[in-house]
Amino acid sequence: MIVLELPSVNTLTDSLLNIMHTKSPLSLLLMKLLVVSSTDFQSIPRVLKPPLLSPLDVKKNTPFGKGFSVSFDIEKPATKDWIGIYSDGDKMGVNPYDNKRVLLFWLYTCGSQNPREADCKLPSGMVTFNGEDPTADNVDKWTIRPTTYRACPFREHRKNKDGEETADLIGPCKKFFIKLSKPKKNKMVRKASVVSKKTTYKYGEKIKADFKTPLVIQNSWVGIYKKDPNKPITTMENQGARGLGEPEMWLYTSCNNTHGDQKQSNSCSKELKDGMISFDDSNTGSSQQELPLRSKQEWPLPVGEYYMAISFYTNPPYKLFKSAKKTFKVKS
Length: 332
Description:
By secondary structure, the protein is α+β, with helices and mostly antiparallel strands. The longest helix is centred in the first third of the chain and has 14 residues.
């Protein structure tokens, strides 16, 4: 803490009067530089506090689709200290938890969400957020979309007197960016594709499609959408603010299922630029499966006209995608 002892206003006034009587060029120059009102002097803080440093550090820019790590250096650590990821909003020193901000991802400093594994006091270390176990998902699922975020250090995840959940912010948050440049975004939309193997399928027949994407994104997926006879196929150009809606059925492109290859998060960590997917009762969800249904529609797909779209956002609104140009039909 730096303490400044400032002279009184009267002392400054007497000094200025003495300088005026000398009338030298130097004194006149000093007069011009030192003409300050008493109000100005009184507004100068007598105690200057250095800015509080965040105990966290994170790379400022991370490409969309890639994981990121948050390092921490906590002076007095406690058990179950944790790091939360929020979309950018309030000041870095304001507790986003108390301001009802949506917690998107989080991890204990021990590197998991399991309280039995969090009974450690780590003064320093690093946690990683990506599409692999241990899960870091909260409201959102990986992959984190391109925008501005903040990483915040917390302690004592608990309930307050009113029964509401709260946590203590133990330092300023740290801002960072998930970046997707316009050229890369345009390339993804321009060169990505999904094409149905057939234009007509029998009811209950396996539905196959080929997909291709110029950039590998974890948890990219292909959805099947009901075709409205009175509207065109939804594209990036005509989607409006809503983006793609929820599909009738969907599959991860790289895992060819809805349950991924991760047990905790049900994410798909595989990365494929191109391949084939097939919708059937083994991977979309049905009454015969032990796994829970994760699509809106249970297999088999009802009779009707449909189209496919490959999507790169895991969380709604699904506004980065490429729709097939042609529809296909399911007939009885």
